[in-house]
Amino acid sequence: FKFDDSVFVNEMKAVVNELRAHITDAWHDFYSVTDAQLFAGTARAKSTQQRLQNVANLTKPQLLATFREHYQAQYMTVIYAGPRRHISALAANLSLIKNSDASRQVRRPVPAPRIGFTVHIPQTLKNDAGRVQCSFRVNTKWTPRLHAIATCAATTLTQGFSSRLYRTLRTQRGLIYAVHSRLEFEVARPEYSYFHIVAKCTASSIPAVWDCIRHEVTKLALAGPTACEMRKWRNQRRTVLAALAHLSPKELVQQCGWIVHQGHEPVAPNDIAEDALKLTEEELKNFAQQYLKVENCIVFHNGNVAPAPAAAQPSTSSEAPVLVRF
Questions:
Q1: Which of 41, 117, 188, 320 could form a disulfide with 110 if both were Cys (CB 3.0 to 4.6 A apart)?
Q2: For the residues 314-321, what does the mean pLDDT come to?
Q3: Lowest model confidence (mean pLDDT) among 108-112, 200-204, 235-239, 255-259
């Protein structure tokens, strides 16, 4: 693998421009603090300024050395979708690839992330725009079933007009502009995986918004989903299953590639969708009981009035870093 110097210089300029574009985002400071707290000790925690410095210090030999270390035949998974007549030729070509004898560096240990506290991020916006992010730690290996359960939890809590938090916070009380949730999974370090609930609201509404989020996730853990919510979930999965029947070979490879990227063996997307239809109320209830606990949560907010602490001992002021624009 090699490339000329002009390509390297132009690519570095493109990366710098992309990083500098992040700084112009109104919520750049907010998410810089969340990443620094949630992923402390990992590359994800580095600030944009540190990333820019890393790019400035990167050399072509360093990039080539990284490529040789990680892009080796024994780390490769080949996913093929197409006519069966090409499989034998593909297998013959793959058999010619020799495994490298180079060894990977041992991944250095990092401290487990802290949980169960509140972080106040000082308001840097001129208007009353507020945001509250509740990050629940999910420390387990990724599986298609886990992904389905987490997606079902997101559907129940925040997806659509009938979801619990949208219905309560937006329709009934008018406290938020939008709300969403998702599972963010770190393959290499599952202990840094989180289920996020993010609400956009006025800064003054943040305590009431957090109280409602805390109430709904606790209720989900105690009583589980309703029959109506499970029916909504299964109807959505049937729609997904119908769409998967019309995937092109390229789209099928992309879907399987995403599954492999999560650290799992290749599985046909339609098999995962059919399995998701079998998800039970008890599985969702158990997920909420195990992971969506107040003491398992870090609450980030930029309001002037702090929400109730996520645990009995919230963080001190020294645990709430202030970012300065550069």
A1: 41
A2: 35
A3: 108-112
Of the candidates 165, 187, 209, the residue with the CA atom closest to the CA atom of residue 299: 209
Structure tokens at 6: 């002009």
Burial 184-223 (b: 16+ CB within 10 A, else e): ebbeebeebbbbbbbbebebebbebbbebbbebbeebbee
- Per-residue pLDDT tens for 283-292? 999 999 999 9
Q: Which of 150, 217, 218 is closest to 184 using CA atoms?
A: 150
Residue pair 121/37 in contact (Cβ under 8 Å)? The answer is: no
Assess contact for 153 and 287: CB atoms under 8 A: yes
E strand or H helix that includes residue 298: strand 297-301
- 262-301 burial, b at 16+ Cβ within 10 Å, e below that, comes to eebeeeebbebbeebeebebebbbebbeebbbbebbbbbb
